[in-house]
Amino acid sequence: QLVESGGGLVQPGGSLRLSCAASGFTFSSYPMRWYRQAPGKERELVAEISSGGGYTNYADSVKARFTISRVNAKDTMYLQMNSLKPEDTAVYFCNARLFGKDYWGQGTQVTVSS
Description:
By secondary structure, the protein is mainly β. The chain has strands at residues 2-5, 8-10, 16-22, 32-37, 44-49, 56-58, 66-71, 76-81, 90-98, 101-104, 108-112. The strands form two sheets. Strands 2, 4, 5, 6, 9, 10 and 11 form a seven-stranded mixed β-sheet that branches. Helix content is 0%, strand content 52%. A hairpin with a 2-residue loop joins strand 9 and strand 10. 29% of the residues are buried. The protein is globular and about 40 Å long.
């Protein structure tokens, strides 16, 4: 099970930190990902992190603004989002791929607006 939290309404230039709490699998053994989906658009990969946290990768649109991290002892992944822009408005989902199958949380809404 994956449960996201931390979304909300923020002004342009503001910050939010999303959390993804995992359960039911060995969290520390799997890479994890954050995706987002804006209205009328396809779901897109935002950031990914290796099982140990030593490797991260970001979409060009969020590089230098977002930071993905994880605390395996807490079975939790994070997405620190700074310098938010209106185009970052979307539902954010955490993702785990186990044995070739994708698992998703319910998503958390992020709205960037003045």
